Amino acid sequence: MAAELSTTFTGLRFANPFLLSSAPPTESESNIMRAFDAGWGGVVTKTIGLHPVVNVDGPKTKFMRANADSGRLSMQKRAGAVLHSSWNWELISDKTLDWWVPRISRIKKAYPKHILVASIMAGSGSDQESSNWQTLAKACQAEGADALELNLSCPHMDRKDMGSNIGKDQELISVVTQVVKEVARVPVWAKLTPSTTDIVVEARGAFLGGADAIVSSNTFPSLPPIDPETLEFEMNVDGLVSSGGLGGPAILPLSMAKMAQLTQAFPDKSFSGIGGIADFSHALNYFLLGCGTVQVCTAAMLDHAIGPNVIKALVAGMRESMERHGWKTLEDFRGTRRDRVVTHSRIRRPGAKDYHGGYDAEGYAAAEASVER
Fold it and tell me: Which residues fall within 8 angstroms of residue 328, CB to CB, at 6 or more apart?
C-alpha cells in the first residue's frame, strides 16, 4: 500500500499537509493560483484588514546570510555565504477588503478542491473592533474561504490593540476568537506570537474562545544587524529602523520549543507549525511533535516566490520517509516524539562520584582555578 499524503485537519481535507503561510507571496491572486498549480496543499492569504495600511518606503523583506569560515552575519549578498534567516517589517496587506473579496471568489471557483485560508486582522477592546472582526470573517467565508486564520501575532504593529499586542493577552485572545466564532461557518485558527512568557497561557485563551487550531510561530521580534563599516542598520529608511520579524532557518529550534509546549499542554488539539521549513526533514520535526499541518514562507520566497521546487521536495521527501519507515498516513507518526521533551530535572545525570559540577568539561575552568569571592 502506497503512502497516503492527504490528511484531514480541522475537518478540512488537504491533498498534502504543506501550506504557504500568510506572507508577501500570498498577496496576489496570480501567486495563489500558481501555488495551487505547483502542488501546495493549502494557501493562507496575506492578512486582510479594514484599516488603511501604508508600508515603509523601501525594501520590506531581506535575507540574512552567514559565512562558515568567518562567522560573519550580514544581509549583503556574497560568495560562499549560506542562508541564516529572513527579516521583514512588512505590515498586513495594503489591499482593501473590497479588493480581496472578488479575488477569493475567483480563486475558489478556479480551484474548488484546494484549501484557501483567509488571514484576517482587526483591533480589540471595543464593540466597533469586534464588529470589524466579524465583517472580515463573514466577507471572506461568503466568497468561499475554507478557514479563517486570526492574525494575533504580527510583531510590528504600532497600534496597541492589534497583532502581537493582542496575542500577549489571554483575555483579548479569547474575546476575539469568540467574536469570530459567533459568525464563522468554517474552522477558525488562531495564529499566536512567540514573543510571550508562556505561549500555553495564550493558547488556552484561544481554545476557550473556541479556536479550532493554533498556528505557531510567527516571526520573532528582532532588529537587522549594523554594518561595521558604515555603522548603519543594514535595512533602514532614512537611517531609521523599527522592530521587524525574524524567520527562516534560524528560528526552527525556537519554534519547535514553542510547539512542544503547546502540543504537550493540549495533546488532543490541532496545531499548524511554522518556522524554518525548507525540506521534509525540517517539517518532520513539527509532525513528530504533534502538528497536523505545517506552513512555509522564507524558503518559498527564495524559490520563484511561491516555492514550486520547495513543495516538490517536501512531497517527495514525505513519501520517501513514510515508505522507508513503513508509515501509511501522517497519523502513524504524528506526535510520536512529543513525550520525549521533558523538564530538565528528568534528564539523566552521571553517578555522583563521577560528577564534578561541570568543571572537567570543555569550556570550564578547573575548580582550583576559580576565584574566591
Answer: 1, 3, 4, 322
Q: For residue 154, indicate whether it is catalytic.
A: yes
Neighbours of 76 (CB within 10 A): 12
Which distant-in-sequence residues (6+ apart) come within 8 Å of 350 by Cβ? none
The answer to whether the beta carbons of residues 98 and 52 sit under 8 Å apart is no
Q: Which residues pair with 295 in a beta bridge?
A: 19, 274
Which ranges of the chain would DSSP assign to H, the alpha helix? 29-38, 97-110, 127-142, 164-167, 170-181, 199-208, 252-265, 280-289, 298-301, 308-325
The phi, psi pair for 223, rounded to 5°, reads -120, 155
Burial profile 140-153: b = 16 or more Cβ within 10 angstroms, e = fewer: bbebbbbbbbbbbb
Which residue type, as a one-letter code, is found at position 372?
E
152 alpha-carbon distance from chain centroid: 12
Active-site position among 140, 154, 291, 297: 154
| DSSP designation for 2 | -
Beta strands at 61-67 and 73-74: parallel, antiparallel or unpaired: antiparallel
181 DSSP 8-state letter? H
The reply to whether the predicted model has a pTM over 0.85 is yes
Q: With cut-offs at 50, 70 and 90, classify the pLDDT of residue 159.
A: confident
Is the pLDDT confidence value at 121 over 80? yes
DSSP 3-state of 299: helix
Cell of 148: 479563517
